[in-house]
Each structure stands twice: as structure tokens, then as C-alpha cells.
């Protein structure tokens, strides 16, 4: 643990929402936090889209800017809260007209265009369930998630539909309607023009009664084995989105907030759409790709005040402008509006925190959370000291613990009990006490894996952490084989399964190999079938095959051939051992290894 602390001794420009951590925790209650939201009139419940949009549209914030979408070509579409309320109502009417109702899944496969925001919030108004998909997924992951979510509707573009969905449409009988964003003249066979439908729809919509526990969002996350898990979130998650943005990001209505995460990931939903709108702030969205100049330009031109990004993105900025200088590039932009920079998704090294302090003039505040937690759980708060390299401390209302681990690296749950480690410096699996409003309500259609995520009254995160004597948490690693690449979780099983569909592949084992920019890159070890040679052509062919099926976000970047992958006695590929060998680390406990070769 690095010893240096960044002290917040200069008074911040705005008085912060949280400056006395202990006081804020002691006086916090979720009951009180709930009262910050309005609820539907007449006690008809709590609806996320009402809180995020219509509530503000009914006040003098109707003319405040809710959303600024920067297109690839730098043109900007601006929607006020009033505009957003009307556009989302039109989308809700479109769904109703199509006979899509309460609880039915509406998937989005879109970049950060205005229609994404209106589809998400319009679905919530109609009490449907939003299932955002990442547009960099290939056809296999998209089809699998559409099937697992039992999606009734998909909102996408003609191009993405042709490339990623059309070829598998017959295998998706549950998918009734595909709504195409963009020019109505380009509406592929079997789809409907969303533009044509919304043009005819009324722009006022009465939100039906919505129970706080009604399902609102379905986010897929990757596990070690099996299919992706669909984490279910409900409307009252709004309370945690609001609270976490209030405390951890110090958000307020006059902020201009930019979250760089793709809306297909939980960060791009909870903080790229919901939390800032719940606060009545302005959301900046960029449709373009990462580029240092472009990003500085957006920060400057849009007068961004709070910026939420990821270590991968920061590392790319660090490459163009090292901390040792010169700072010409960032210095040529006016970043004076910026008052907070925060990060999530993977460990943020102390260097990243200090780079922010020196180059942007603001240290980067690390935050920790997961798809399952729905909102930030642990953070370096805006106005509190920062310990570079630490995830920070639990938010008010969040009870965290470090649990003793068993032989498999996960928390020891033998006899249905866990052991909470209390001593300073304790290292173990991070656990959270269920009860915060954005906690996932289970993995869809998967009671088994849902149950396995809880033990003895705790939710088990799968992350190994250390807690220092003052209660700061430090990330140590993941307890399982799931790979974090460029901030996104990649399930090794999904990649292995795709590779095994190639005729040359007998078996595959997938690991994350540390990478200076992406955090980890996906690397596959492949055993070839007899008759196939481990040549550069085979490698190229496999890489291209995987990329076509899985898309660039998930496909392996490297493939090694290995005639004997290590197995457990129960026949599982030992990814942990592949990784240790790759990195030259100690091989650890090999009691589970099936030894096929004669020793010596
Ligand atoms: C929001 C999100 C969750 C996993 C999590 C952990 C890793 C997230 C982190 C971090 C170290 C941080 N992670 N934030 N690791 N420091 N500040 O990322 O959700 O995609 O579900 O990933 O990401 O391993 O368990 P998700």
C-alpha cells in the first residue's frame, strides 16, 4: 500500500455533499434517501423514468438541457428535459401500440445516439425492462443475450441489424419487433422504422402504476462457466443511483456530467443515463471513438464539470501526455470547468491518480462497484483525502466486509457460515450486506447461480481485497477466472466455446494476460485436432474466426498452441495454471491437477 495520501486541504470550489465521512455514515438511512425522490402521484409507486425525466419536465427545469449528444462528425443534438419527456412518451406509445407491455424485455443495440436514451427511458415509462447490449459484440454474443433475455423488441440501426442480427433472426422466435433508428427508407426486411412510428405517436404518456420492486433493467455479466448471467434490477434502484452520485460524484443539478462508458455496460446505464438525469443535471454523450484530442475538446467545449471514466481510457491519455510532461496537449484546452474526475472498472494505479493531479489539475477518484451492485459501493469521495491505489471507503448505507477464504480462493462458506475478518490489513473476499436499493434481485432464470452469490447473509463479490487500519479498501484481484479487459468483464467460457466451434480446435483455455493499456488482454491456449498444423495461417484463421463470432470486445488478441492443456481431475481446464505459467508465477496448489504425463 503506497503511503502517500492526497490531502484535500484546499477548500473546494463548491461545498461538497460529503466532507465528514463518519458523520455522513452515522446519520444516513435509506428511508431518508428515498424521500429525495418524488414517486408517482396518488401513491402509484416509483418509476425510474418519471424520476429521471418527467419530474424535472414538470418544473422550471423543463427548459434545462438534459442531454447533449456529440455525433461522430462533431455535430451536436441537444434535448431539454421537456424534449426528453415528449420523446420518451412517444417511444412508450410506440411500444404500447405494438402490444408490448409490463415486464417485457426491450433490448437496445445502439451507440450513443439520442434514440438510445429515448428508447431506454421510454421503455421504463411503459414499465418494460431495458436490456442494453454492447454494440461491439459480435453476432454470437448478441443472439445469445437476446435469447437469454427473452427479448420481445430490439432497437438498433439498419447496419447493426444486417451485420449482427439478421443471420440469426430465425433462431430468435421470441423477438417480435425490430425497430430501426435512422432513415425510414433503409428499413431491412422484417423490421419497422422507429422514425416512422414515433412521428405518428402522441407525446404525452401517463406512466402506469409501478411498484418499486418491478423489474426495470437486465444487465448481462460474464461468469467463469456457463452462459452470461442476466442481473435483474428494479425501479427503486433509482434511490441508490441518486445517492451514490450525490455522495461519490458530488453531483448537483447545474453539473455537466460526462460518463465515457458504453451504454451496453452497467456503468453506461447507471451513470451514463440514469444517475445524472435523476439529479436534473446535463448528460454529455459522445458517439465517437476514443481519441485524446477529441476527448479534451469535448471536456473543454461542453464545459464538463464532472467526468466519470475508466483506467483504460486514462492510460491512453497518459500515453499521449506522460506525467513527466510536456503538458502541451491538455494545456491547449480550457478545462477550467472540470471539478471532479472519477474512475471505475478496474484497479486504478497510484500513477493514474497522480497523473490526474499533475496533468489535469485534479486527482482521479477511484470508485468500485459491479453489475450486481447496480451503483457505486466504495469510493474515494470528492472532498475527502485520497489514498492513491485504494478503491476508497464504503458509501453511507453500504456495509462491507472482508471474508476468510477457503482453498478454492473464494470465501469459505463451509457449513453455511462465513468468517468476517476484522483485523487491520485483513485480506479476503469482499462481501456486502444485502439491502441497498440497487442490489440485483437475482440472475434471470438462474436460481442456482443467484443462490451461489449469497452466503450467511452476505452477497459475495468474487473480488479479493485488503482493508487497511483506517477502513480503506485495496483491490487485490479477482477470486475467479473472469477477465477484465479494457474495463469489461469477459467470460473465458464464452470465448472457449466460440473457439471450439472452429473445426481445427479440439480444446481451448482462455486467460487474461496483463497489458499496460487494456489492463488485461484475452489470450487463448488451443489444442488442435489431429490433421491441423500449428502454423501462423491457422493462428490467423482462428483469430479472425473468433473476432467474427465474438466481436472485438470479447475475441482473443493472442492465441498459443498447446498440445496438452492442464486439467483438473474433474476435467476442467485449469486456467489458473495456464495463467501462472504464462506469467512465470508460482504454480500454487496443484492437488486438483490431473497428471496425464509420466513425471520425469
Ligand atoms: C462497474 C463495473 C465488476 C468488476 C469488479 C472488479 C472490477 C470495478 C474496480 C474494479 C478494481 C476498481 N472493478 N471497479 N477493480 N478497482 N475501482 O465495472 O461492473 O463490469 O460488473 O465489473 O470490475 O473486479 O468485481 P462489472
TrEMBL record:
PROSITE patterns: AMP_BINDING (PS00455). It is an enzyme of class 6 (ligase). The lineage of its organism: Bacteria, Bacillati, Actinomycetota, Actinomycetes, Kitasatosporales. InterPro entries: AMP-bd_C, AMP-bd_C_sf, AMP-binding_CS, AMP-dep_synth/lig_dom, ANL_N_sf. Gene3D superfamilies: 3.30.300.30, N-terminal domain of ligase-like. GO terms for molecular function: acetate-CoA ligase activity. SUPFAM superfamilies: Acetyl-CoA synthetase-like (SSF56801). This is acetate--CoA ligase. It comes from Streptomyces tropicalis. Residues 57-444 form the AMP-dependent synthetase/ligase domain. Residues 494-572 form the AMP-binding enzyme C-terminal domain. Keywords: Acetylation, ATP-binding, Ligase, Nucleotide-binding. The keyword tRNA-binding does not apply. Pfam families: AMP-binding (PF00501), AMP-binding_C (PF13193). Its EC number is 6.2.1.1. The keyword ATP-binding applies. NCBIfam families: PRK04319.1.
Amino acid at each position: 500500500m503506497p503511503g502517500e495520501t492526497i490531502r484535500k486541504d484546499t477548500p473546494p470550489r463548491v461545498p461538497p455533499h460529503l466532507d465528514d465521512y463518519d458523520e455522513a455514515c452515522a446519520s444516513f438511512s435509506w428511508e431518508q434517501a428515498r424521500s429525495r425522490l418524488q414517486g408517482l402521484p396518488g401513491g402509484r409507486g416509483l418509476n425510474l423514468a418519471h424520476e429521471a425525466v418527467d419530474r424535472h419536465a414538470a418544473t422550471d427545469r423543463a427548459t434545462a438541457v438534459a442531454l447533449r449528444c456529440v455525433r461522430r462528425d462533431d455535430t451536436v443534438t441537444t434535448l431539454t428535459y421537456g424534449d426528453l419527456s415528449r420523446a420518451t412518451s412517444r417511444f412508450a406509445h410506440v411500444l404500447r401500440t405494438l402490444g408490448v407491455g409490463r415486464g417485457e424485455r426491450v433490448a437496445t443495440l445502439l451507440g450513443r445516439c439520442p434514440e438510445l436514451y429515448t428508447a431506454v427511458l421510454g421503455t421504463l415509462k411503459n414499465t418494460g425492462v431495458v436490456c442494453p447490449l454492447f454494440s461491439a459484440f459480435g453476432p454470437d454474443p448478441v443472439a445469445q443475450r437476446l435469447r437469454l433475455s427473452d427479448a420481445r423488441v430490439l432497437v438498433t440501426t439498419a447496419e447493426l441489424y444486417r451485420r449482427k442480427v439478421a443471420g440469426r433472426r430465425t433462431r430468435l422466435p421470441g423477438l417480435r419487433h425490430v425497430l430501426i433508428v435512422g432513415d425510414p427508407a433503409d428499413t431491412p426486411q422484417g423490421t419497422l422504422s422507429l422514425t416512422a412510428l414515433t412521428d405518428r405517436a402522441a407525446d404525452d404518456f401517463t406512466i402506469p402504476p409501478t411498484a418499486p420492486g418491478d423489474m426495470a433493467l437486465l444487465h448481462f455479466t460474464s461468469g467463469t462457466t456457463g452462459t452470461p448471467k442476466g442481473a435483474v434490477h428494479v425501479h427503486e434502484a433509482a434511490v441508490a443511483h441518486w445517492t451514490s452520485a450525490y455522495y461519490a460524484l458530488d453531483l448537483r443539478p447545474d453539473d455537466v456530467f460526462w460518463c465515457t462508458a458504453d451504454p451496453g455496460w452497467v456503468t453506461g446505464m447507471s451513470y451514463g443515463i440514469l444517475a445524472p438525469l435523476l439529479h436534473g443535471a446535463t448528460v454529455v454523450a459522445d458517439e465517437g471513438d476514443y481519441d485524446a484530442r477529441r476527448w479534451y475538446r469535448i471536456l473543454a467545449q461542453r464545459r464538463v464539470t464532472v467526468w466519470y471514466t475508466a483506467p483504460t481510457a486514462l492510460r491512453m491519455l497518459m500515453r499521449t501526455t506522460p506525467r513527466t510532461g510536456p503538458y502541451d496537449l491538455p494545456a491547449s484546452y480550457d478545462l477550467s470547468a472540470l471539478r471532479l474526475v472519477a474512475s471505475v472498472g478496474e484497479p486504478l494505479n497510484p500513477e493514474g491518480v497522480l497523473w490526474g493531479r499533475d496533468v489535469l489539475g485534479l486527482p482521479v477518484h477511484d470508485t468500485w462497484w459491479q453489475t450486481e451492485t447496480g451503483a457505486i459501493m466504495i469510493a474515494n469521495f470528492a472532498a475527502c483525502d485520497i489514498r492513491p491505489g485504494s478503491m476508497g471507503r464504503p458509501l453511507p448505507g453500504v456495509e462491507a466486509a472482508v471474508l476468510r477464504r477457503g482453498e478454492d480462493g473464494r470465501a469459505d462458506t463451509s457449513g453455511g457460515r462465513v468468517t468476517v475478518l476484522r483485523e487491520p490489513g485483513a485480506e479476503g473476499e469482499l462481501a456486502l450486506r444485502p439491502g441497498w436499493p440497487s442490489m440485483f434481485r437475482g440472475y434471470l432464470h438462474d436460481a442456482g447461480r443467484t443462490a451461489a452469490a449469497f452466503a450467511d447473509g452476505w452477497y459475495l463479490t468474487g473480488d479479493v481485497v485488503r482493508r487497511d487500519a483506517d477502513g480503506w479498501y485495496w483491490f487485490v484481484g479477482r477470486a475467479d477466472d473472469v477477465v477484465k479487459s479494457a474495463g469489461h468483464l469477459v467470460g473465458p467460457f464464452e470465448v472457449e466455446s466460440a473457439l471450439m466451434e472452429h473445426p481445427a480446435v479440439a480444446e481451448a483455455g482462455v486467460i487474461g494476460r496483463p497489458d499496460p493499456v487494456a489492463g488485461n488482454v484475452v489470450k487463448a491456449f488451443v489444442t488442435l485436432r489431429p490433421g491441423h498444423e500449428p502454423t501462423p495461417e491457422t493462428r490467423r484463421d482462428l483469430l479472425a474466426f473468433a473476432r467474427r463470432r465474438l466481436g472485438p470486445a470479447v475475441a482473443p488478441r493472442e492465441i498459443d498452441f498447446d498440445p496438452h492443456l492442464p486439467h483438473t481431475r474433474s476435467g476442467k481446464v485449469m486456467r489458473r495454471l495456464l495463467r501462472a505459467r504464462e506469467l512465470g508465477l508460482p504454480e500454487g496448489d496443484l492437488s486438483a491437477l490431473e497428471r496425464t504425463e509420466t513425471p520425469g
